[in-house]
Amino acid sequence: MSREGLGLPRGIGQRDYGAMASTATTSDGSFGGFSPTEFISLSESIAANTIFVKQSWQFLEKANRTLGTAKDNQSLRDKIDDIQTGTNQRIATTTKDLQRLTVVVRGGDKQQKLQVEKLTSDFKQVVQFYSKSQQSIATKMKQVFLVNASQTDDLAMDTGAGTATGLPGTAEQQQELLKQKQLQQSLQFEQDMLLEREQRFREIESNVLDVNHIMRELSNITTQQSEVIDTIENSIGRTVDNVESGAEELVKAAEYQNRYRRKVLILLIVAVILGLVVTGIIVSKLKS
């Protein structure tokens, strides 16, 4: 089914924003340094996927209001399944991209780290909204399916009750055979319906994203980012302290230098005075 048929934007539906395969890693699996190109690519991918998940959430909200009404049909349910399948895959891929971006940005500056933190926060929020819509629409689809199945059961029983004519034997034998046949048909039909419902419920539940696992991973990413930013803040704080300490030392050094200069100046003045006195004594003796 085309993305245009799902009501999603053409550009987002066609472009693949999966994990970049060109990431340079070292032998231990860690990144070999900060790559501006990779940082930009991953950031754009995550931002686009966040928009995609948001649009999927909005579609599910609209579809949830349509289920069980006169506009409810199989085409709508196919779209719901397609949307959930594609979006679940996109969420899993984006979570991995965020994990990688968190490692890549360790070599970047504070502004880039704050940008990654915002990307993670926005994505985490929209995934929570999407997950709630998924659970709500799964419950609604189960309820609608049970109502339709019950109506089908009643119709089948009514149809079976009206097909017992032309059986051989007495009226009592015909009635007994009819009851047995109806019982067999009813048991077989109920068994088939139970299997169908179980299969259908499994399909509905399989589309519900394991959001708990995703949220744990996103929380770990957020914790790592906070630790990195705290480290930056601490480094900046230490730098400020060092600068202030250095400034104080410079002030003290300037004071010491001024004191030294005053001492030298005083000594020079004393020396000059002593020189003048000695010179005056010598001149006086020579004149006498």
Automatic annotation (TrEMBL):
Keywords: Membrane, Neurotransmitter transport, Transmembrane, Transmembrane helix, Transport. PROSITE patterns: T_SNARE (PS50192). GO terms for molecular function: SNAP receptor activity; SNARE binding. The keyword NAD does not apply. GO terms for cellular component: endomembrane system; SNARE complex. The chain crosses the membrane at residues 264-283. Pfam families: SNARE, Syntaxin_2. Residues 191-253 form the T-SNARE coiled-coil homology domain. The keyword Transmembrane applies. InterPro entries: SNARE, Syntaxin, Syntaxin_N, T_SNARE_dom. GO terms for biological process: intracellular protein transport; neurotransmitter transport; vesicle docking; vesicle fusion. Belongs to the syntaxin family. PANTHER family: LD27581P, SYNTAXIN. This is t-SNARE coiled-coil homology domain-containing protein.
